[in-house]
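Quick log. Single chain, no ligands specified.
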Amino acid sequence: MSKRLEGKIAAITGAASGFGAAATRRFIEEGGKVILGDIQDEAGQALADSFGDAARFCHCDVTQEDQVANLVDTAVSEFGRLDIMYNNAGIVGAAGPIHTTPADEWKFTLDILLNGVFYGIKHAARVMIPQERGSIVNMASTAGIMGGLGPHAYAAAKHGVIGITKNSAAELAHHGIRVNAIAPAGMATPMVAGLAGDPSDIEGTTARLASVSPLKGRAGVASDVANAALWLASDESGYTSGHTLTTDAGMTTGATNNPPNFTEYTPIIREAGRRGLED
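-> predicted structure:
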């Protein structure tokens, strides 16, 4: 049985750690080849080297359009084409009350989280349109679906990612290109662990998230997002475009780690407080 990405070429931004590193491993396990883009040169090069001929590292600051363009062009020059673009690079960004948020921090956050995705879609489309095929996957967030789940700049950017995902999907479908997004909740990654002070404390972060997860005792981990990216990147999702796939244990549908209302049977509640079907 062939692997799910056999012969496919992917470019991943923010590939040196977290979701990007997990997706790199998963894509290569499934037969793909990956161009890893990141500003973490040492970690990115080491990860690429660990996969031999199946991976290459390319320095890529997603706030710089020419570097995103170069990442795409490197995929084509090294491997002949680009089948998958995973716009994953991200930071937490500007935080705190809106009335104290510095404008330069706001702009820098959107430059990474939203403009970087725009550059990735733009330049992936540039090489995918002549191919008449391709899959673009963008990193959104549950903070792009609901309010109150992230800092203001982060939430604004992630709402924007979902918007550009839908709009570009509508356009690029005419060229055989699919565009989708992933919206994770807080997951056990270095970025989330760093909010508690130690980016390397994945084990502690996993335990903390498991204690508040809607799925009893189950934290979200990087491989959950990597598996979602794999499905959206592969031909298995070949009729799915413009979609935002959540990896959030149902949180955006109202699931919490508390028992729901009406967990035990009670007779039907009718008008004026009457109960039961019999008069």
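DSSP finds eight helices and seven strands in the chain.
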